[in-house]
Predict the 3D structure of the following.
Amino acid sequence: MTATARFTGDANPYGGGDPYADYRTADFPFTGLVDLADRRLGAGVIAANDEFFAERENLLRPEPAEFDPERFGHKGKIMDGWETRRRRGASADVPHPADEDHDWALVRLGVPGVVRGIVVDTAHFRGNYPQAVSVEAACVPGSPSPGELLAPEVKWTTLVPRTAVGGHAANGFVVEAGQRVTHLRVNQHPDGGIARLRVYGEVAPDPDWLAALGTFDLVALENGGTVEDASDRFYSPATNTIQPGRSRKMDDGWETRRRRDRGNDWIRYRLVEQAEIRAVEIDTAYLKGNSAGWASLFARDGESGEWTEVLPRTRLQPDTDHRFVLPEAALATHVRIDIFPDGGISRLRLFGSPTEQGAARLAARHRELGG
């Protein structure tokens, strides 16, 4: 584990104005990866030993933490995060908590994966953040209960050792343990508050599940698809296009700035593995005056393969789900969608099945990662 940027100590008390004006953050090398703890993928905080001041579920809210200086309740200041009560020692002679005393929360990842980086965000917790944090991981199949996860036979591996953190800061950690995990145990030593948790990594799907599905969405985040690059991310990230479900508002898709040249915008994807694509779905939900005018789709097999057109340039309608059955299956590991001239799409779905070679590689990777 290596910290790419370190923040320790208190932040200044809130002095009015923009509460993020003195927020401490950095550019972390892993934030372009999938957030495995995204609620949209099915992640959840399933248990915590204490949430006296603020609920554990706040940890995974997708938007940045908010701060309202006037918001108080019967228990005290209401914070947008997970906050526990102050720990005390055993007696008047021993008023301080013991070194091993700590609070914890159990997090179910939305999809199993290999964690590459973690951000423990203490936004707005300026003097009431934990002194240190640690994060452990486990790989447990099925849908275990909190009691089952805390059973003595479950093996937990340390991803982030006990490390001092700072208040009102994005505390980022590079994770080097290359194993498949399903659950995390987030510990704060000895107590305090954490606003948000982000868990960045690579999806590692269960090949048995995908084989049972037969035909599935080969580019979906939950199945192991990824966005490799995009021409424009001005209004919203390209990864929105492979999130689960239909878009529910305009910024839940991908929208580019207005072009003033003669070019076009595009997204390049990597499929879960080599596969045959048989059907395509391009959705422009909630993009009404700013959807792409036309779209075309190209496929490539391998990193150096030639791009082949599989869907010719086709007119798109605003706020519409477009479905296309390909005349013949397209063999691919990568796909690029071109939109003309600009605008956006909300979702891209590519339905098909891995090839025999692709399925074998998926199974081999699953074994290598300890699945």
About this structure: The chain has a mean pLDDT of 95.
